[in-house]
Amino acid sequence: MTSRPSASHQSPGPARRAHARYRDRMAALAAAAATALTALPASAASPAPSAAPYGAADTPTGFASVDALGRNGTTGGAGGPTVTVTTAAELKDYAGRRGPYVIRVSGSIRLSGMITVIADKSILGVGSTAEITGGGLQLGSTTRPGNNVIIRNIRFTGASDDSVSVTNKAHHVWIDHNDFSGGYDGLLDIKRESDLVTVSWNRFHHHSKAALLGHSDTYTADVGKLRVTYHHNFFDGTDQRHPRVRFAEPVHVLNNYYRNNALYGVASTQNAGVLVEGNHFENVAHPVHVGYDKSGPGRVVERDNVYVNSGVPETAGTVVEPRTYYPYTVDDPAAVPAIVTAGAGVGKIGL
Q1: Does residue 241 carry a catalytic annotation?
Q2: What is the DSSP secondary structure assignment for residue 54, as one 8-state letter?
Q3: Which candidate in 203, 241, 299, 323 is catalytic?
């Protein structure tokens, strides 16, 4: 079990507005993290306060928290009516309405395709049994933006296409504490000039293509967009795309748990800039690729990761520091398996 040396840093930027409440959340939840760590062997159980143990926060960290593009962070449907939906027709109706809505999904809802979610929506699963199956959610269309959307605490299974597609210039999106499995194409794709997204505390399993970032090798409109934070996700036996990145910079891959990923962990292609930091790779022969398949090489800086029965990561070039945009704390990567398995997925945040 080895850790990689740190790479050089750019100077941190001035982003400090969210730092106080971020620190308060860490302190309030530190006891829960300590309990999770007791499941580790003594050699691995180094105490480390989590950036969000169990992820039980009301607001995102990472890129979805950044004030930009006319928004102060990501608030979803806050301030709008709260409704509970139990059918596909009800979900489609409220997800497509103008204005903010907090939409609570109760029980299992079967879709026949993709439902379009437009701006200012929170779609929240009730308890531990909320499920969307057979179809998925598409954030925005070419005429109706999917900005400022939150999706939390929902099990996505058996989608006929993507489970969640963040597309068509959607920005300020938070996808948190969901469970993704068994779709047809990608479980969670972010593409077509979307920006300022946080993907946190999700479990991905029983599928090949987990998380694509960037539409294609020829879609150069994504340059300067697709700034995404992936933190505290559990990539549990999925084969590839954790994420696969094109053009984006910076992409922050922080404190995720990779286990038994057959093809690779992270791939940076088409001059993307990816920071892979504080992750735990277990039984991953190719934890990080620079370039993949027919896609040209990207850039990768990796630091403070742990590789257990795993290969050597590929690295290249330099990457803009995420601290230019937001503050964060890195969990001890040796503790990441216990922290993430205890906290990721549905039924963990009391919605």
Answers
A1: yes
A2: G
A3: 241
